Amino acid sequence: xxxxxxxxxxxxxxxxxxxxxxxxxxxxxxxxxxxxxxxxxxxxxxxxxxxxxxxxxxxxxxxxxxxxxxxxxxxxxxxxxxxxxxxxxxxxxxxxxxxxxxxxxxxxxxxxxxxxxxxxxxxxxxxxxxxxxxxxxxxxxxxxxxxxxxxxxxxxxxxxxxxxxxxxxxxxxxxxxxxxxxxxxxxxxxxxxxxxxxxxxxxxxxxxxxxxxxxxxxxxxxxxxxxxxxxxxxxxxxxxxxxxxxxxxxxxxx
Length: 254
Ligand code: NAP
Fold this sequence. Notes:
By secondary structure, the protein is α/β, with parallel strands linked by helices. It has helices at 15-26, 38-48, 62-72, 95-119, 142-162, 183-186, 191-197, 207-218, 244-253; strands at 5-10, 29-35, 53-56, 77-80, 125-129, 168-174, 229-232. A seven-stranded parallel sheet has the order 3-2-1-4-5-6-7, sandwiched between helices. The protein has a single domain (5-253), classed as NAD(P)-binding Rossmann-like Domain (Rossmann fold, 3-Layer(aba) Sandwich). α1 packs across α8 (207-218), α3 runs parallel beside α4 (95-119) and α4 runs parallel beside α5 (142-162). NADP nicotinamide-adenine-dinucleotide phosphate binds next to α1 and α4. Pfam families: adh_short_C2. GO terms for molecular function: oxidoreductase activity.
């Protein structure tokens, strides 16, 4: 298979990023697998084998993102999967905790979009992984909800700014997907069941569910699609978000 497109995947060492790396590689892309977990990224790239490579990048550190693009060379696809969350009431949350989530999920999205915009050619594609929480609030998840709402809007602004240069910018907003990120939440009794009860399709997502949409958004089949934030959640956006905080409180009182 000829590898005629190069894809940088940030946050590619785990979960959705790793599943997307495998799917884009199978679709004929040469992958540059970047992560703040450099060892994890190197191990994953070795699993993919040559000509795929790995790199260190922390989306909160602009120098590292700039260096990533410089060393990767010409690139056609940028996928930003970096993100994490915390749980706590606004009234109790230290501002540093709020900032740390916004720094990765929103400011990091800005830094990646900035350098993707500088480096992608005409026909290039930027995809960010936002979240169902960008539109559906969850008590106890103020930083994550606010940051992902910002990332979804940033996606639309970037699509307007980069569209005239033929660069498409989209986001995927997944619902609950079982990954290392969500494992702690999944271990709290009631959380997964509550999510599933509030989907139309009656199941949580898999990283592969998201990877399939990534491949589509990066493909020529999506060549007229930009500025979209794709709800990908088994129909959960039609209902309500699980009461994560309520389940945490119940566990704390048990
Ligand atoms: P994951 O398994 O934890 O993978 C995320 C990867 O990104 C990890 O390798 C992580 O490294 C890396 N990362 C974190 N902060 C970074 C930074 N500052 N710079 C570079 N890399 C960084 O999580 P996931 O579930 O696949 O999540 C991927 C994306 O989907 C995130 O943006 C998340 O918010 C979003 N999302 C996930 C779900 C879900 O249910 N899983 C739902 C909606 C949206 P470390 O291991 O060192 O942290």
